Each structure stands twice: as structure tokens, then as C-alpha cells.
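Marked as duplicate of an earlier ticket. Keeping the data here for the record.
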Amino acid sequence: MKRRTFVKTLALTGTVPFLTASIFDKNGTDHIRLLRHATLILQLNGKKFLVDPMLSAKGEMDPIQNCGNDIRIPIVDLPIDSQALAEILKGIDTIVVTHTHRDHWDAAAQKLIDKNKPIFCQPVDVEKIKGQGFLNVTAVGGSVDWNGIAINRTKGKHGTGDIGQRMGEVSGFVFKTKSKSVYVAGDTIWCDDVKEALATYQPSVTVLNAGGARFLTGDPITMTPEDVMNVHAQLPATRIIAVHMDTVNHCFVKRGDLKKVLKEKKLKTRVSIPKDGELIHL
């Protein structure tokens, strides 16, 4: 199959593989591209958001502790080379950080991202990010308007009990235009905060951090397959994109595990599970 035919065929299914020569969708269509883990490129109304950048090379960071293994992270490398990454960072209009855990905002991102780029984050993280040298940091308390796109902050729970408390405050964000809304839930489990966000914003697309991340004690701190199914049951109309898998050593639910459960529950067509680098048209 010729390359042009191959890409066209994949485009008809709503997904496009990562092509170094085409970092962004040149047609300007709204899309989400998963780079790796929770790092997304979201393009809406021609504006490009980089969400939760973890840009370290494979194995560059120490493993997450107290989870039963010592695998260094990220477990896999970015699906692009340094030249393509530089092109991405140059072309991004703004950065969104849901919270500052190192698998969402790492030292590599802090080093590589232009300190003048605008950053949106939860209020609790503003001073920390400014302290890292960034000059244009905006706290989203409730909602802000940026270039005709409403950015709404939502709440979440990064686990239960004592572990949930120790994980600290986390946020999600809903990006709303005249024609669509995209809910990036962030590091949260299924909870009343997520239920409220779905009811309030009725997002056309919902990005969930799956992976069932957990420690040796306590319950999961990100979404399990059951949590993903709860989101679908709550708002069947939303298109779910599940990410946050196969990259960090305490995420024990793999892409294959989630696919198996969804197939068993006949929900395989309702949830997209992109590969690293994959683009999904909205």
C-alpha cells in the first residue's frame, strides 16, 4: 500500500500515525495527539495546547517508589526525535499543567519549554512554576477565556484515604469552543467531581488518565477499567480517549488489559486507546 493511501485509510478511521514530517495537522482540523503517558497536543480553533508535558528520555528518571518494582521511568521513549520535539515546542501556543507531579511536568519539560510561553495551571501550582523561571503563568480558578476558547478547571480525586490526601490537589480542564468541548480529566479516579464535570459541561470528548496507578498499599489513584466504564455509563454520548498507560512503573493496567475488558463488555467501539504518537480527529 502506498504511503498516501495508507494515511488516507487511517484518517477515515479517525486516527493517524505519527509522521515526523507532519508534526501538526496542516489542515488545521481539531484533533488530539497523544505523545506519551498523559502528554497531549490538543488543537482547537487553530490553537495548539501542550498538556502535561513529560519530555524525559527513556529511563532518565528514578522509578516511582513503593510500588513493587524498580523500573526506571519513562519506561518507553518519546515516539519522536529531538528535532521533531523542538518543532513541536516551537509551534505550541500554550501549555496546560493539570498538576506538577513529575510524570506530568518533569525537569526535561522545564528545561526545554520557552520560559515566555503562556502556561495555565491550578492556583496551588502557580508560585512553583513561576519559581522555575516561567514568566507567563495563569491560575485557572474557575474559568478563563483565551483566544475565544473557554478554559474551565474541574476538580478530581487522586486516590482515596490517606494516599489520596498525600497525592495533593489535582485538576482537570474543559476546553470549550462554539462547536465542541474537550474534557481532560487529569489524574483522578471515578468520583463525584468527575460526575459533576460530565453533567455540567456535557463534553463531546473526554480524555481519561487510565492505567490504574497504585502503590503497595491503598486503592488505585488513577482510573481503572471499571472507572472508564462508569464514565461511559454516566455520559454515553461523550467520546472517551484513554491514555496514561505503559509508561510509568506504578501503572499496572496496560493498554491490552483495558482493551480486553472493553471487548468483554462490548464497549470496544466507545473508547479509543491511542498508541504513542497517534492522532485522533475530533
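See parent ticket for discussion. Helices lie at 3-12, 82-91, 107-112, 126-131, 161-167, 192-201, 225-234, 255-264.
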